[in-house]
Amino acid sequence: MIFLHGWPELSLVWRAQLDEFAESGWRCIAPDMRGYGGSSMPAESGAYALEHVVADMRELHDHLGGEPAIWIGHDWGSVAVGSLVSHEPARSRGAVLVSVPYFPAGHALQTLIPLVDRTIYPADRYPDGQWDYYRYYTTNFASAIADLDADKAASLASIYRSGDPEKIAKPAANATVTRNGGRFGGAHRAPPTDLDRALWPLADFETLVRAFDAHGFRAPCAWYLNDEANIAYAAKASDGGRLSLPVLFVNGDYDQMNSINGNHMGDPMRSSCADLTVAHLHGAHWLSLECKTELTFALRAWLESKKLTAV
User: In a 10 Å sphere around its CB, with 0-12 CB exposed, 13-18 middle and 19+ buried, how is residue 240 labelled?
Assistant: First the structure.
């Protein structure tokens, strides 16, 4: 089982799942992705296009022996898993996408914005819907990074929050980043924010902060700057991006950004996955942290239903 993290994470976000499945006999691997932690951090933004990320995973997989694996991703890690299994299906026995669904045409503003729920985000007020923050990276990258880097610990604490069911069907804060002049508005730095202890063991959060103190947010955020390259790469996928292997999508029912409940976000995935299972968890975006036990249970149930066993 190979676990791929997303933004702004490290491999340690999978600690609970790694421990559980390793005890069950699975060989579990969770790398720091390109731009994070102990991995390489190229200076060029184009180095974070998905084609290069998949090349990293291909080399890692070969190093591990190359036997077909269960690939599990969260956030941009989910995007990376979808990219890998659509281009190199022989490397996988099954794919798990946590929080972010699969977009066969490429994960990019061009493919995301047409799926925005306009009952929540009227086009005249929210032209990019919940993806306004993504647009802001493409138009004000230096400012976006400077704001996040101004107080890295507070930025991370403010990003990692437990889900709130009261926010469902309401505009996400990420939809007004451009209007506010940045994620943190005129302050241009995160407000002092207490750690959400329901998500993070203190020691793990301190490790996360040290990694971002050392390298900052530039490399992780550069993943957002490669839409054109990512769309072109998606067009080269096997079988037009259709996935025939078993796929599990784990939906965060309180996730204002990515939930597929009551909208069209999941339509491309449903139409392109021949063997799709959807699990629903009562959490928001950070499901490997917020719903540790529930996510492990959903993974086990799916593996058993597909007769996917440790070898």
Answer: exposed
Torsion angle of C-alpha atoms 209, 213, 216, 217, degrees rounded to 10: 20
| Buried-state track 176-199, b at ≥16 Cβ within 10 A, e below 16 | bbbeebbbbeeeebbeebebbeeb
- Residue ranges of alpha helices (H) inside 171-226 are 177-180, 202-215, 218-221
* DSSP code of residue 29: B
Both tokens of residue 232?
């072109």
C-alpha to C-alpha distance for 293 and 19, rounded to whole angstroms: 11
Q: State the Cα–Cα distance between residues 209 and 149, nearest whole angstrom.
A: 11
Residue with tokens 């086009």: 123
Task: Count CB-CB contacts under 10 A for residue 34.
Answer: 22
Q: Beta-carbon neighbour count of residue 262 at 10 Å? A: 11
pLDDT in tens, 230-253: 999 999 999 999 999 999 999 999
Strand ranges inside the chain, DSSP E: 2-4, 69-74, 92-98, 243-252, 273-281
CA distance 171 to 6: 23
Tokens of 267: 């339509």
Confidence of residue 311 (pLDDT cuts 50, 70, 90): confident
* Distance in angstroms (rounded) separating the CA atoms of residues 278 and 153: 34
- Beta pairing partners, 279: 250
Contacts for 252 with CB less than 8 Å, ≥ 6 apart: 99, 163, 258, 259, 281, 283, 284, 285, 287, 290, 291
**Residues in the chain, overall count:** 311
The residue with tokens 């437990």 is 162
For the chain, domains (ranges, CATH) are 2-305 (3.40.50.1820)
On average, the pLDDT of the chain sits at 97
C-alpha dihedral sign at 238, 242, 246, 250 = positive
